[in-house]
Design a protein that fits this description.
The protein has nine helices and eight strands. The protein is an alpha/beta fold. Helix 2 links the parallel strand 1 (30-34) and strand 2. The longest helix has 17 residues, at 3-19. The protein is globular and about 50 Å long. Bound molecules: pyridoxal-5'-phosphate. Pyridoxal-5'-phosphate binds next to strand 8 and helix 9. Residues 34, 36, 57, 79-80, 164, 206-208, 222-226 line the site of pyridoxal-5'-phosphate.
Length: 229
């Protein structure tokens, strides 16, 4: 087995283990392989192993990859901070934008999506630990922001929430943040009376903390290091 195959096996085992304490089952979980430090060869390898959801955080790296890997049925996820002036380069190839956190970006995404005649899937990014170094909405702003996106941007589909937790040596200490994300997620679902297949995605958990995020109800995890190291 290649290293990536072994890594993937281990991640899958850890997912199974974490889910024994969760309401979700394995089939509910969407694994996004974050390839920001991976080569095209490695992306191709993990695709061959069945992981079709690939995450990137830089437009400059994503663009040439999208071209040279266009023969593969990859679902591209954009997980990084997205500058408004870069939207036009990636919008027609992106399966899900994880980092919607401001009106100017919503406006630009909506305008470009409308011009292409598509509905764009987005997650609203929340700065759950109120870190100055991180992007994302204050937890108290989420309901209003979702409301305004639903009102004003008919070519955006708000699929759920995303957060990047702080890095802590002991991920157990992040549990309250993931718990709070889950509460906000459920609150939004209730407030807007979403159906089961709408606003159904809670994207949280990375290499250091996905086991805790899964226990607290994440159904999309974004793993880089543990897969491509
Ligand atoms: C890099 C990155 C990840 C993956 O992080 P790892 O710790 O390598 O698993 C997930 N989400 C975002 C937004 C990232 O930038």
């Amino acid at each position: 087995m290649s290293d990536i195959a072994k890594n993937l096996e281990r991640v899958k085992e850890n997912i199974e283990k974490a889910l024994s304490n969760s309401k979700n089952s394995f089939d509910d979980i969407n694994l996004v392989a974050v390839a920001k430090n991976a080569t095209e060869k490695q992306i191709e390898k993990i695709w061959e192993l069945g992981v079709k959801d690939i995450g990137e955080n830089k437009v400059q790296k994503t663009l040439p990859q999208m071209k040279s890997l266009s023969h593969l049925d990859i679902k591209w996820h954009f997980v990084g901070h997205l500058q408004t002036n870069k939207v036009k380069y990636i919008i027609d190839n992106i399966h899900l934008i994880h980092s919607l956190e401001r009106h100017s970006l919503a406006n630009e995404l909506n305008k470009r999506a409308k011009a292409l005649g598509i509905t764009l899937n987005t997650l609203v990014q929340v700065n759950i630990a109120l870190e100055e170094t991180k992007f994302g909405l204050h937890p108290d702003e989420v309901l209003n922001f979702v409301d305004e996106v639903l009102e004003n941007y008919s070519n955006l589909n708000v699929k759920g929430l995303m957060t990047i937790a702080p890095y802590l040596e002991d991920a157990e200490n992040l549990r309250p943040y993931f718990y709070e994300m889950r509460q906000i997620f459920e609150e939004v679902r209730e407030k807007f009376d979403f159906n089961d297949d709408e606003f159904d995605t809670l994207s949280m958990g990375m290499t250091n903390d996905y086991h805790i995020a899964l226990e607290e109800g994440a159904n999309m995890i974004r793993i880089g290091t543990a897969l491509f190291k």
